[in-house]
Amino acid sequence: MKLQIDLKPCPFCGSAAEYGEHHKAAYVFCTGCGAMTKCFAENNYKELNQLAAAESWNRRTEHE
Ligand SMILES: [Zn+2]
Fold first, then answer.
1. Is residue 5 a contact partner of residue 54, using CB atoms and an 8 Å limit?
2. 20 to 30 A from 41, CA-CA: which of 3, 23, 54, 62?
3. pTM for the whole thing?
4. 33 assigned to some structural domain
5. How many Å from the N-terminal Cα to the C-terminal Cα in the chain?
């Protein structure tokens, strides 16, 4: 299953963002400055947590 959506560049330094995961939990982090979303673990599927993390990340970049 592949639900990952494109991640926008970091709002702080412009570097590429990547998905991180911890068991079923997922988050998005910046490869440049280390900024990251909170860890999303509400869903039983890692892919859905990744989706929530990506939406959170992309929403934040829109507000900067
Ligand atoms: Zn950054």
1. yes
2. 62
3. 0.87
4. yes
5. 31
